[in-house]
Write a structure and sequence with these properties.
By secondary structure, this protein is an alpha/beta fold. Helices cover 37% and strands 15% of the residues. It has 13 helices and 17 strands. The chain has helices spanning 16-30, 50-63, 79-90, 108-114, 134-140, 194-207, 236-239, 246-250, 278-289, 295-303, 307-333, 357-368, 394-407, and strands spanning 37-38, 102-105, 125-129, 148-149, 152-153, 156-160, 178-182, 210-214, 240-245, 258-261, 267-269, 275-277, 338-340, 346-350, 370-371, 373-374, 385-389. The strands form five sheets. Strands 2-10-9-8-7-3-6 form a seven-stranded mixed β-sheet, with helices on both faces. Strands 13-14-17-16 form a four-stranded antiparallel β-sheet. Strand 13 and strand 14 (346-350) form a beta hairpin. Helix 11 packs parallel to helix 13. The longest helix has 27 residues, at 307-333. It is globular, with a radius of gyration of 22 Å. The termini are far apart. The structure holds pyridoxal-5'-phosphate. Residues 107-109, 112, 132, 182, 186, 214, 216, 245, 247-248, 253, 258 line the site of pyridoxal-5'-phosphate.
C-alpha cells in the first residue's frame, strides 16, 4: 500500500485564479451581452521581441545540423548565458559574481518552490503577507508550514504588509531561520528602499537567517534609487539567495527561462555546527533533479542582453508601465487609495468603506464589467485590497478606466 504525503492534504483546495474564473463565467452566463475586461491577468500579453525570436530561429536551425545539434546541456546552464548574466545584470551595479554562482533554470517558480529542499524540515519560515503563494505552499508540502487554521499556517511567521507600514514589514522580534522577500512585490506592486533592504540584510547577518529574495519584477523599476538586487547591500552575499526570471522581463512565460544566484559565501549550519556551502548543495541537487533548460530558451534569454534585445525589452516594459500609470492616476483621481504601479506592473487598490475584497471584486464585475483579483487570495493581510494588473492592451486598459469612472 502506498501512503500519500499527508502534508499535501492540508493544502487548501481552492486555487485563487480558478475561483475568479468561475465567478467571471457565472457573470458571463447571466450577462451574455456584457464583455468584461480583465485587469486580473498575471501573464504578459505582448509577443516576444524580434531580437529574441531571431535568436530562437537561429538556435532551431543550428539544432537541425550535425555540427550544431545539442543534446543534454550543462545542468547549471550554458556558459554563454551565465557569462551574459554576470556581465549585464550584476557588473554594472558593482556586483561581482562568477558564472559558477549562477544557476539557469526553467523559470523562477521552479526554484522558488524547490530551494526549500536545502534546509531541514524544522526551520522556521517568515513571509511577507500578502504573498506569491508558491513560497508557503512549497513549504507546506513537506510539512514545514505546520497546520492550516483559519487561513494561517501554524509554523509560518506572517509579516503583514499594509498601507500603514508602506508595505515593508518591520523585521520580526524573534529569530526566524528563513525569510522570503519579493520586491518589487507581487501582489502589491510596491518596492523596498536600499535602507529598508539593508535592515533585512543586517537582521539576517545578526540572526544567522537565510533570505530567499525574489527579484522577478526588477526590470520594472523606474526609480533609480530602488535596488534591483539584494546584493546591492553589503553583506548580502553571506545570507541571500536571489531569483530572477525572464518571464515578466521579456515575456518568457511560455518560453521558460530564469536563473538563481547562489553565492559561494552563503552557508547554512549542519547539526554539528559545521558551515555548509549552499552553492555546492544546490549544484548537487540540480545535477540530480534537473537536466537543464532548452538550448533554444537559453539562446533566447541571451538575446535579451544584445543592444537590440535590451532596447526592445525596454519598449515592452514601457508599454505595460503606461497602463500602470493610467490605472494608478485614474483611480487616484476618483478619490481611491492606490499603491504600487510605479516600479511594478501591479496596482494595489484599497477597497473603500472597509468592504471585503471578494465583495468588492463582485461589485466591480457586476457594475463596471471589470475583473480584478481579490487581495484576500494572497494572504490574510490582502483582505480589504484588490490587485489590478497592467498586462493588458492600452485600449482595454483605457476602456476599463472609463467603466470604472462611470461606476465610481
Ligand atoms: C511571475 C512570477 C515569477 C516568475 O515565474 P516563472 O516561473 O519564471 O514564470 C516569480 N515570482 C513571482 C513573485 C512572480 O509573480
Amino acid at each position: 500500500m502506498a501512503l500519500v504525503n499527508e502534508h499535501f492534504l492540508k493544502l487548501p483546495n481552492n486555487y485563487l485564479f480558478a475561483d475568479v474564473a468561475k465567478k467571471v463565467n457565472a457573470f458571463k452566463v447571466s450577462h451574455p451581452a456584457a464583455n468584461p475586461i480583465s485587469l486580473g491577468i498575471g501573464d504578459v500579453t505582448l509577443p516576444l521581441c524580434h531580437a529574441v525570436t531571431e535568436a530562437m530561429h537561429k538556435a532551431v536551425d543550428e539544432m537541425a545540423t550535425k555540427d550544431g545539434f545539442r543534446g543534454y546541456g550543462p545542468e547549471q546552464g550554458y556558459m554563454f548565458l551565465r557569462e551574459a548574466i554576470v556581465k549585464n545584470d550584476f557588473l554594472p551595479r558593482g556586483i561581482h559574481f562568477e558564472p559558477s554562482e549562477i544557476f539557469v533554470n526553467d523559470g523562477a517558480k521552479s526554484d522558488t518552490g524547490n530551494i526549500q529542499e536545502l534546509v531541514r524540515w524544522d526551520n522556521s519560515i517568515g513571509v511577507t503577507d500578502p504573498i506569491y503563494p508558491v513560497y508557503i505552499d512549497s513549504n507546506a508540502m513537506i510539512g514545514r508550514a505546520g497546520e492550516m487554521k483559519d487561513g494561517r499556517w501554524s509554523n509560518v511567521v506572517y509579516m503583514p504588509c499594509t498601507a500603514e507600514n508602506g508595505f515593508v514589514p518591520q523585521v520580526p522580534e524573534r529569530r526566524v531561520d528563513i525569510i522570503y522577500l519579493c520586491y518589487p512585490n507581487n501582489p502589491t506592486g510596491t518596492t523596498i528602499s536600499k535602507d529598508g533592504l539593508r535592515e533585512w540584510v543586517d537582521y539576517a547577518l545578526q540572526n544567522d537567517t537565510l533570505i530567499f529574495y525574489d527579484a522577478a519584477y526588477e526590470a520594472y523599476i523606474q526609480n533609480p534609487d530602488i535596488p534591483h538586487s539584494i546584493y546591492e547591500i553589503k553583506g548580502a552575499k553571506k545570507v541571500a539567495i536571489e531569483f530572477h526570471s525572464y518571464s515578466k522581463t521579456a515575456g518568457f512565460t511560455g518560453v521558460r527561462c530564469g536563473y538563481t544566484v547562489v553565492p559561494k559565501e552563503v552557508t547554512a549550519s549542519a547539526l554539528d555546527g559545521r558551515r555548509v556551502s549552499l552553492n555546492q548543495l544546490w549544484y548537487r541537487r540540480q545535477c540530480t533533479k534537473f537536466n537543464g533548460t532548452s538550448y533554444i530558451s537559453q539562446r533566447a534569454a541571451e538575446a535579451t542582453y544584445s543592444p537590440e534585445g535590451k532596447r526592445q525589452v525596454k519598449e515592452s516594459i514601457a508599454y505595460y508601465m503606461d497602463n500602470a500609470r493610467t490605472i494608478r492616476t485614474t483611480l487616484a483621481s476618483l478619490g481611491l487609495d492606490v499603491f504600487g504601479g510605479e516600479d511594478a506592473p501591479y496596482v494595489w487598490l484599497k477597497v473603500p468603506d472597509g468592504e471585503g475584497s471578494w465583495r468588492f471584486f463582485e461589485s466591480m464585475l457586476y457594475n463596471a464589467h471589470v475583473v480584478c483579483t481579490p487581495g484576500a487570495g494572497f494572504g490574510p493581510s490582502g483582505e480589504g485590497y484588490v490587485r489590478l494588473t497592467a498586462f493588458g492592451t492600452h485600449e482595454d486598459c483605457a476602456e476599463a478606466m472609463d467603466r470604472l469612472r462611470k461606476w465610481v
